[in-house]
Protein 1
Amino acid sequence: MVAAEEGVDSILEVEDLTIRYGKHVSLYLPELSVRRHEIFGIIGPAGSGRTSFLKAINRMDLFDPTMDVRGTIRFQGRDVKEWRNVYSLRRRIGVVFPLPVGLPLSVYDNVALAPRLSGVRNKTDLDGIVEGCLQRAALWDEVKDRLDSLGSLLSGGQQQRLTIARALSQKPDLLMLDEFSIAVDPVTTMRIEDVLKELKSEITIILVTNLVQQARRLADRTAFFLNGTCVEIGNTEDLFAGKVADPRTEDYILGRFG
Amino acid sequence: MSESLFAKTALDERNQRVQRFYRRLFLTMTLLLILPVFVILTVLLSRGASVLSLSFLFTNPEQGMTAGGVFPALLGTIFLVTAALVFSVPLGIAAAIYLSEYASDNWLTRLINLAIINLAGVPSIVHALFGVGAFVLFFRFGTSILAASLTLAIMTLPVVIVSTRESLQAVPRAFREAGWSLGATRWQTIRHIVLPNAVSGILTGVILEVSRTAGETAPIMFTGAAFFLPFLPQSVYDQTMALSLHLFVISTQVPGVPEGLPYGVALLLIAVVLVMNSVSIAFRMYLRSRKKW
């Protein structure tokens, strides 16, 4: 494990986190921190606790009575359990799910939904947000002429970019992507990856991915999760250059298992 | 070589024969199902259509209900159905939203669900007696439109609740999670994401309710529907005539009714249900077109 670095500006700090479903421990993380403006990759086989980790960060465990979260997750220096208003916490954290979720609303309404719910009424403001987010998600040029057609009728790749635009619509500090490319063609995946590289200057990104090479292309640092625990966190370059602390990490990266 | 590759084997032959058999079996069952509907409509149309006319719709019954029109009964049925909808739709939808979106899965919720399903199985005459006890006597509404429509509402509530809950649960959980993760509250997610996606299923439940309510006789017989009233109800505390009871009365209780009259009334009852249903079908289509579904 990498010890908590002194003097590094981190947006997310985890201490002694245990996530259980019933008696089954899904994830135990003694320590982890995500730095501001980095892309933090999380790799590992299915069932290693990565998605549970994301759910614990934006308190989606509140919607799952079987999920039990203990320990501390500090976002922007505050324990997520002490954010009195979980809604404002969630507004600062954008989430993109594995399968694109184009809500059956118009393209415009998909992006404008969250700003509207948090009180933006002015049409000019909304137009600006919608255009800005769609542009940042590299979707604007494809949909600008049909903003009022149904979001759920877009192609899979377009819907996933729509989901990203929606996740950006409230100017989050943190964007969490959970295997975003699982249902997306390779060309679109590359476009989204370019988008993420650009977004890095504005926000922090946690990227959970099944594709080891995707983590290599994008992540500044990468964590390797296995069987509900974090085996290793390191600079992505180092890990892929073979500078690993645990042989299992190298085995996984080189495709020897998983 | 390539010929034999595409030749049917004995197993292929058998599988296809079995497949044809089942296809025909299911088709036959479906046609058998339509048959009674077809026969009923044919009989009603051939014997009752000649009775129907504008003056039949808009005049009072005359000569001990053996002649004249059915205006008070027609209006009464529309009143009763509308009033029952006003009570049961908001209540049923609210209960279904609670059960589907808020309630956690514990013994109490399961008990409530069981009770609702049982309520749907209670015979309508039992609902009628409950209506007499609760609304006519206890709440002192007397035999009135109010008491009758409340009884109808209680009777049809399970249909509304179950169909609404089914259509809410047909909305993918991913949609809700998308809403929650944007910082929307449960209610905002329901209001803006879940309900718009469930509305067409909910309306289907309402259609079922209208059909059932309009035709019911027992629950209104003791609670608010009158044998014969020469005037129209003035308030919800008045009694009213109703097509279903009127049909029962002229078919069994009144001597000397011309042969075509009951068929005409039955045809009208079906037509009323059809018209009320088409209103909600039209509304459903309007919602879809607005959503560019």
Protein 2
Amino acid sequence: MNNAATSWPKPPQVAEAVFEALSTMPGETNRGGVADFDVFEEVRTELAGLLGIDAPCQTALGANSTWGLNQAIFGYPLKPGDTVLTTHAEHNAVLRPLYMLEQKGIQVKRISVDETGRVRPEDWAEAVKIYRPKLCILTHASNVTGAVNDISVLAEAAKEAGADLLLDVSQTLGCIPVRLSEWKVDMAAFTGHKYLLGPQGTGGVYVREGLHLHPHMVGGTGVKSDLKEMPEEMPLHLEAGTGNEPSYHGLLAALRWIRQHPLDEKDLQEQTGRLSEGLLKLGCRVIVPDGPSTPVLSFTVPGISIQDAADILTGSYDIILRTGLHCAPDIMEDIGMQGGTIRLSLSRFTTEEEIEQVLLAVRDLVESGL
Amino acid sequence: MKYRCKKVENCFAGARTYEYELPVTGQELLAYLKGWDIRENHKFRRPVFSAKQGALEIKGILAACVIKVNYPAAGWEYEKERLERWLAETEAQ
């Protein structure tokens, strides 16, 4: 029930691929040629379909979404006086780089979200008109409430105002459709260890053709070693140092498995709905987004502190969940949960029995008289 | 008694929560906590307890050897030192 942090279980092929990669000669030994198997290239090709892009080489691979967001935020050509527009629903992987940019004279405007964590399109449209940002940064879905933003509408408004858009798809890639080219998204950061079902230590950033980022990290690329700067072509431009090859073998196995086993979105939504309905019936306060959402829900148990409730659910019932601010502190006031929430996040592997167990445990909690 | 202590990493603002692994279970620990306000709750699959003395509150599973302490904001370092000194000076039976 903590899949929005790191999905588990994974398809068995993922661990097998990591083991196999560590048990055999590293790929870089051969350095190209027709016989060489480039796991990063294979991953890029698999990802292109999921991201909804045509050019796999426009995706740079690194350690996680935070790596990708840092590459995009610090690499984007901003100068003092420029404005960045973002929202209260963002993760600290966006917020903290922006606090650093503010110290360098970049104006950062943050708009509130509705009581379910979703960006109001009218607020967004008004903000891009008023602030005229050079860059907009937005999450596809809240990691706290699961509310999915209507990116086609929000991206169009940003484009009309002349802004570029950086989208955080950490919570959605592998879970709901992502169509970066169709939405005209300029950059997008993603991670491999959530709904892509891959290992931790995988993730990256897509950058549209024609948009030039200044590399946030520089170093060896294994090719063009005579250059004093990073090679201009993507993805080399943003990929310095040795990649996490074993984990990327695991991610590749996960991506192939996902392609062969399409997610039943409707079933997952129904399961999430059953869980939220059950919690509501027990008297819990649950954030239930109206409209599209990921299988994530936040709740509190009236009269019981979040920490006490979570300690009992985990300690007494072995329910693995997440409590607190979920690295998204700005959203809490907007959703009326200033002290944080208890978050449950399902995956395609969550069973009916597990949902029933959660509801029985919460029922015990509600009836405990704590 | 010997203990192993580790901070609990969580996402709450200003969290000061620590876990202690003890050589005794929560149930056995309660015998040492004379004068503390002790509460047990047996309605859960694994029953729990809490023990309070002043600003200090210990919580845990009765059958487990790990307790959790969420130190108060005011004087938390003093309270942590006080509890750890008490644990160190208490002889496990």
Protein 3
Amino acid sequence: MKNDTADNIIVTEGVTKEYSDHGVPVNALRGVDLSIQKGEFTAIVGPSGSGKTTFLNVISGLDNVSGGKVWLNNKLLSSMSGKELSDFRRDNIGFIFQAYNLIPVLTVEENVEYIMLLQGVPRQERHARVEGILDELGLKGFANRLPTKLSGGQQQRVAVARAIVSRPALVLADEPTANLDSKTGIELIDMMRTLNETGGTTFVFSTHDTKIMERARRLVVLKDGQVEKDESHR
Amino acid sequence: MRLYLKLAWRNLFRNKRRTFIAGTAIGIGLASLIYVDALIIGMEENMIHSATASFLGEGQIHREGFRETFEVEKTIVNLDEITAQLEQEAIVSHFTLRTLNFSMISSPANVSAVSMVGIEPATERHLSQIDEALIEGAYFDGDGGHDIVIGSKLAELLEVGLGDRVVLTAAEAYTCDLAQAMFRISGIYHFNISDMDKAMAFVRLDKAREMLNLMGEAHEIAITFTDTKYDRAKDLPFWSSYSTGGNEALGWMELLPELEAAFELSSFSTWLIGLILFAVVALGIVNTLFMSLYERMFEFGVLRAVGTRPWVLARLILFEAASLAVVSSVLGMILGFIVTYIFAQTGIDYTGIEYAGVTFRDLLYPVMELKQYVYYPIWVFVFTTLIGLYPASFAARLKPAKAMRRSF
């Protein structure tokens, strides 16, 4: 068993994932062994179809593995029920998606405080934390706006705010810059990295943008569902 | 909870056109139900009024067996005691005495079998509408003992008019001897009820008693009550207290069982219409909620991913269904009120049409009742919310990764 280091936040052991695409069997992951330590700023990279999204899905418990094991914060995901997984994600993982990831009928403030509502954080504390994070991410004055009234970059910053406001141990981001222009994308990644450095939150994100990859401290390259390369940058 | 209510309400208006169409469809269903219910209540009241106010009365007292045989001898037992008692009844508004027998009416031109009815013109006014239905002549306005009032079709058959003479022939009580009397046509009525217009002839009670050898006796006491609740109450002590000593007292529901059966059929019809409307509405609701759900599949995936429990997501869909129900109910109540109110003011003309043995004599006015605006919207609300369980359970079973297949 590889989950023997307390510093590891994610450990995967021989993870495989097979699914059927219109009747055609697809091996999305083929025996992935990987450990990610707390506080890392890791990029999962690879071409389209390499298994990046599937990998993020299985390490967050959004999807089941076909084989192998995943430990997240020392918990074996396959041993948890659906409800336990929901609660575990709520309390331990922040998510940032490509786009359309905010609830369009909720204001920026309501979107950001949503997870804290699920966690039962008292109202005053919620408001204080939302105010603080919006301020920190340069979104002061946007609290009462609907997401549709924001630019793509601003929306992704709100998504980052929502992901980290509940102070999760891990933030997973699937191609968070895919819908942004390169300058805004780099700004977003730099902001995530600052949060990683100042708050110690572990970030794992997928990308196929070389400029974004350069910002990661660790690069895990996936190809055909397998880890092809795993290197630390700086 | 507040956030989900807010979320559901806002989600409902994300696609305003769709919500408006779905809400209008449900609203029309509710409005139809409100209108049909009001119409049926109006129809029942109209039919009861047509049946009881024309001639029947709201209740009647007879000698037991008279209604089955119409034997002249079967007169009411202890008539004087009963009439004295009726005069003291607080719930009785009016009553009148009648004799009823089969007789032959003849004119120089023709002959016909009729039901000769002996009436007391003064008290009969309160029980029947013969005076109001007169199209020619007068309603026993003089002292003439030989006055007779007949229907328009009978007058046509006998080829007689006002002032013409006719002869009534009837069998006397007890002796069965034939008695004949000459009458002069003093009035012709038109009820637009075939049986009454061609087969009834009204004479003064005293004259009928004299012909039938029934002095001081009567076959029927017709009654009206101070409130309609009495004549519809089958268990009213009144009926049993007058159904003694060989007499029977019956309300219109027993005198006209076919009318009650027709009302039961109407209630069933309302129920059936409601069921069909709700079934159509149910498909609309499910379709709307599923369209909305499929459109937001990714969003539901995100909500599940960030830790929203399945039942919380299901609750959100239920809230949306409930919000749709609230909007639809308001629309339905407004629409139902407007349509019903218009017809309740103008009335619907079914006069002359016969249904369940009763001919509509007045315009039909739908009756608006509070229950239509309380119970039916509650039905819609509960029903819509229950229907929402199906898409809600679908949402609860969503796998986050599948729902978000466009990304993660």
